[in-house]
């Protein structure tokens, strides 16, 4: 007899590979699978279609199931289904980053009340193990910083723009044709997907509840080929970075494009590969990298979570204590608003070429007490305009907004074409 029985909700990209992988583990039996369309052809050898239902609540209500594996995605009805499963005392494994970012707090509280566990390794970095390491072998550490590439689509686009010197629009089309980007890529390219993952990752790493609505996010749609070229000249790569620091309980958390020094590991994480760099004490700095998505890689994490439950199931009345939510802090962590964050900046100013133009620009920076680290004047175009590239020393974000306003008002620049923070 199988040791645990699971009900699967979702048999798509991830669900299919979870199903296939579980065939190798006779101690886990899938009793039923909920899908949207039971008549759809499934790409699984000798598949028994009688196991399918389009009523996920039936899977939850089945008394045989001890574990519910949710791989449908989205907030509704996943939230209602998992709430019902936990209330019935079932353990949960999920890959649903959006659900956890938006409703993790209530789900974890409910789970603890009902003495069940929710495992979600796949929801952060697909196949890269990060939650289990943080909660177990890194448990002695005070983690103070996260810098991560958590979205394969955007990393693929940025890498291709760099390697092939192509524009964002051209590369996005290629990525869509190859299946690396969805027809509606908003969630990925606007940084939402990374922000969902970072919300949960920072909550676990800092042991401070972070609310998704407090995570600033900005995508890659405004990155131009010129920015990538100038980044290279200055010794950087542009990456969509999920960034968070925790300095004495004040949390700076955000997702946006960043100049990453070529000396850093993250600068060399290319195409669809993901990576998470953690800084903490006593470990120092550690980077885990690997496949952040894809059916097989994600199934590796989902099945790992299922097996963690299976190995302990029936051996104790309180399974996997280290993997449980142990938050002592509520959702009131002080979050530093983006305007108060401090960064170095890459600024690309579009200017009209004139005598004294650069002097006026540098005077404006001096008036705000912003030090310029590097200034590069680019070739003058036939319309007598040129780009001036400035790298600042560290300053508050709000000063950069003020300077943009002053430079425009005084006619020193035609526009601020790009502003990218430097890691
Ligand atoms: N794909 C990845 O690489 C990856 C990586 C990490 C995490 N994740 C997460 O894993 C989860 C699943 O992703 P996926 O790529 O496998 O999605 P998917 O390919 O779109 O599959 C979704 C599955 O859920 C089923 N479904 C949708 N709505 C349903 C409903 N109301 N009732 C019953 N079944 C329903 C679908 O049924 P039909 O088959 O009948 O349409 C399908 O089998 C998501 O939370 C995603 O964010 C995915």
Quick summary of this structure?
The protein has 423 residues and is α/β, with parallel strands linked by helices. It is 35% helix and 27% strand. The strands form 2 sheets. Strands 7, 8, 9, 10, 11, 12, 13, 14, 15, 16, 17 and 18 form a 12-stranded mixed beta sheet that branches.
How would you describe this structure to a colleague?
The N and C termini lie far apart (54 Å). The mean pLDDT is 96. The strands form two sheets. Strands 7, 8, 9, 10, 11, 12, 13, 14, 15, 16, 17 and 18 form a twelve-stranded mixed beta sheet that branches. The radius of gyration is 24 Å and the shape is elongated. Helix 1 crosses helix 12. It has 14 helices and 18 strands. Strand 4, helix 3 and strand 5 form a beta-alpha-beta unit. By secondary structure, it is of the alpha/beta class. It folds into three domains: 152 residues, Rossmann fold (3-Layer(aba) Sandwich); 161 residues, Dihydrodipicolinate Reductase, domain 2, CATH 3.30.360.10; 84 residues, Alpha-Beta Plaits (2-Layer Sandwich), CATH 3.30.70.260. The site of NADP nicotinamide-adenine-dinucleotide phosphate (NAP) has 25 residues, from helix 1.
Descriptors:
single chain, 423 residues, alpha/beta, Rossmann fold, Dihydrodipicolinate Reductase, domain 2, Alpha-Beta Plaits, 3 domains, 12-stranded mixed β-sheet, 6-stranded parallel β-sheet, elongated, binds NADP nicotinamide-adenine-dinucleotide phosphate
């Amino acid at each position: 007899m199988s040791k645990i029985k699971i009900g699967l909700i979702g048999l798509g990209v991830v669900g299919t590979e979870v199903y296939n992988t579980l065939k190798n583990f006779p101690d886990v039996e899938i009793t039923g699978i909920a899908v949207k369309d039971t008549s759809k052809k499934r790409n699984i050898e000798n598949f028994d279609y009688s196991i399918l239902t389009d009523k996920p609540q039936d899977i939850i209500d089945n008394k045989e199931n001890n574990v519910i594996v949710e791989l449908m995605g989205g907030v509704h009805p996943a939230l209602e289904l998992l709430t019902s499963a936990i209330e019935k005392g079932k353990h949960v494994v999920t890959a649903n980053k959006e659900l956890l970012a938006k409703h993790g707090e209530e789900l974890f509280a409910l789970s603890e009340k009902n003495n069940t566990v929710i495992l979600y390794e796949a929801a952060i970095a697909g196949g890269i193990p990060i939650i289990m390491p943080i909660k177990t072998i890194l448990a002695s550490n005070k983690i103070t910083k996260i810098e991560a590439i958590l979205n394969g689509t955007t990393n693929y686009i940025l890498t291709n723009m760099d390697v092939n010197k192509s524009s964002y629009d051209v590369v996005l089309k290629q990525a869509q044709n190859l299946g690396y980007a969805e027809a509606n890529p908003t969630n990925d390219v606007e940084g939402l997907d990374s922000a969902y993952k970072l919300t949960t990752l920072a909550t676990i790493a800092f042991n401070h509840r972070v609310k998704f609505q407090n995570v600033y996010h900005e995508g890659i749609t405004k990155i131009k080929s010129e920015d990538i070229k100038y980044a290279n000249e200055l010794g950087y790569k542009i990456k969509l970075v999920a960034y968070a620091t925790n300095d004495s309980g004040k949390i700076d958390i955000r997702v946006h494009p960043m100049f990453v020094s070529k000396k850093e590991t993250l600068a060399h994480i290319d195409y669809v590969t993901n990576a998470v760099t953690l800084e903490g004490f006593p470990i120092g700095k550690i980077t885990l990298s690997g496949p952040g998505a894809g059916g097989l890689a994600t199934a590796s994490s989902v099945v790992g979570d299922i097996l963690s439950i299976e190995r302990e199931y029936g051996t104790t009345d309180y399974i996997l204590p280290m993997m449980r939510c142990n938050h002592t802090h509520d959702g009131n962590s002080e979050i530093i608003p983006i305007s108060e964050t401090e960064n170095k900046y890459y600024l690309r100013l579009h200017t009209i070429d004139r005598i004294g133009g650069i002097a006026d620009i540098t005077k404006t920076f001096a008036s705000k007490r912003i030090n310029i680290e590097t200034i590069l004047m680019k070739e003058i175009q036939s319309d007598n305009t040129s780009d001036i590239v400035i790298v600042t020393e560290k300053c508050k974000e709000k000063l950069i907004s003020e300077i943009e306003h002053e430079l425009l008002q005084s006619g020193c620049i035609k526009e601020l074409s790009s502003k990218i923070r430097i890691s």
